[in-house]
Design goal:
Length: about 450
């Protein structure tokens, strides 16, 4: 006899998650344009040129301090990163208590993009406007990244996160690389387009701000809001509750030693990565004698190879687990800084080959670090823990550049300075070897993925 009972209803949640994941990728696409065009390439030299117009005896006054124009961008970036380290943790605690994460994400993105757009109006000797614009834009970028990373835990289960994080990172490299290509062509060929070089730079920075704001609409419209779960009970208004949760987390964090060990490992190897990237142009120009055209080609090569590298590392993590793949990546970083020490002066091919290697591991190690850390976060505290992740990253990001600068000062050569960064990868890798992945995931109350090591 045929059953006439009700048929089961198909589980549509995986389809809904995939839809949100595709929307989430677009925020990496959106903000990477600002990071590559403005903060990585165009902002610093342009602001230095503006500050020199205002300088007297090659000095400007910044809050009563006498500063050389060439040092101004470094001071601004340093101040913004230290401010982020203070602001992001309470913001993360507040974000964990609200369902309106996509509104927070878009709000910070649009405020940041609005301040970034002010760079178009930085002309003459008005360096102050440029300093304020980038300071606020960078703070908003950091805040939006905390929210964005916490959303990863809501739209992807434990088995999906390596793939989703890697695809998002790859999407970011592609978007940032495409706009950077257009902008560098416009700046380099500004005469062809009937522009001055300064106007071409201002238009390029404005385009990055508009790109950031415009493409943020996609995750804003397509992501869902998720009801907060496992929220730490606190009394008072939202602000008081968030600081209460932050205080409770700082007390409880000792109960998650595996999470703390990974976070410490990440601080070391990520500082090494960021210092290699920050110093590569200086190394190529000052030590190897390359001109601007070679350096521009290198930047673009790293961008587009980084997209491929993120996807390759994501695929490898699906098969072997994130931790061993990150460790392989750190081994490649050690080979990179060792090879950089021996690069011959004035030979383009070896330099581009090194850039290719950097691109392969750059996106992959960072994307998997994000997804791996997400597995070690207690449920309901995703934004708060990612705020620690970003705040500690930003608060200690000066250490690698300090080592690079000190070694250069002692040896008067960039070769031992770049090689000295191997210590960050050795220490970071050694700490990562101590991480017990399964224990960390279980301690955090998460499901152990089907592939983990």
């Amino acid at each position: 006899m045929t059953s006439t009972g009700p048929r089961g209803i198909a589980d549509l949640e995986p389809i809904a998650r995939r839809r949100e994941q595709r929307a989430w990728y677009w925020y990496d696409w959106a903000n990477s344009a600002y990071v590559t065009t403005v903060t990585t390439v165009l902002f610093a030299p342009y602001l230095i040129a503006i500050a020199r117009e205002a300088a007297v005896d090659n000095r400007i006054s910044v809050l009563g301090l006498s500063v050389a124009p060439g040092a101004l961008p470094s001071y601004i970036i340093t101040f913004s990163t230290l401010m982020s380290a203070l602001v992001l943790p309470p913001l993360g605690a507040l974000a964990d208590r609200t369902a309106k994460k996509k509104e927070l994400l878009a709000g910070f993105a649009w405020v940041g993009a609005a301040f970034a757009a002010l760079l178009f109006f930085v002309t003459g000797d008005n360096w102050q406007l440029g300093a304020v614009a980038v300071l606020v834009a960078n703070l908003c970028l950091g805040a939006s990244l905390v929210i964005n990373d916490s959303i990863l835990c809501l739209i992807a289960n434990e088995d999906e996160r390596d793939r989703v994080s890697s695809r998002g990172w790859a999407f970011g490299y592609l978007g940032g690389g495409l706009l950077l290509t257009v902008n560098l062509a416009m700046v380099t060929l500004h005469d062809t387009f009937g522009m001055t070089e300064g106007f071409a730079v201002r238009i390029s920075m404005l385009s990055a701000a508009l790109w950031w704001a415009g493409f943020t609409l996609i995750p804003f419209l397509r992501l869902r809001n998720h009801t907060p779960t496992h929220v730490v009970p606190e009394s008072g208004n939202a602000l008081k509750q968030s600081f209460g949760q932050l205080g409770q987390t700082l007390k409880d964090i000792r109960n998650y030693p595996v999470t703390l060990t990974f976070l410490l490992a990440y601080l070391f190897f990520n500082d090494g990565i960021q210092t290699v990237i920050a110093s590569s142009s200086t190394y190529g120009a000052e030590e190897l004698g390359f001109g601007q055209s070679v350096l521009i080609a290198t930047i673009l090569l790293v961008q587009f190879v980084g997209m491929v590298g993120a996807l390759v590392f994501g695929k490898a993590a699906e098969r072997y687990g994130a931790r061993p793949v990150i460790l392989v990546g750190l081994g490649i970083w050690m080979l990179i800084v060792t090879s950089a020490y021996f690069l011959p002066e004035g030979q383009v091919a070896p330099f581009l080959a090194l850039a290719f290697g950097i691109g392969i591991v750059l996106g992959g190690t960072q994307a998997l670090a994000r997804s791996y850390f997400s597995l070690l976060i207690p449920r309901g505290r995703e934004a708060e823990y990612f705020s620690f992740y970003h705040a500690m990253e930003r608060g200690t990001s000066w250490f690698g550049t300090l080592v690079f600068g000190l070694v250069y000062q002692l040896t008067d050569s960039y070769r031992p300075a770049i090689f000295a960064l191997i210590a960050f990868f050795v220490i970071g890798g050694g700490l990562l070897l101590k991480v017990d992945t399964k224990k960390g995931i279980r301690d955090a109350g998460n499901e152990v993925p089907s592939v983990v090591s």
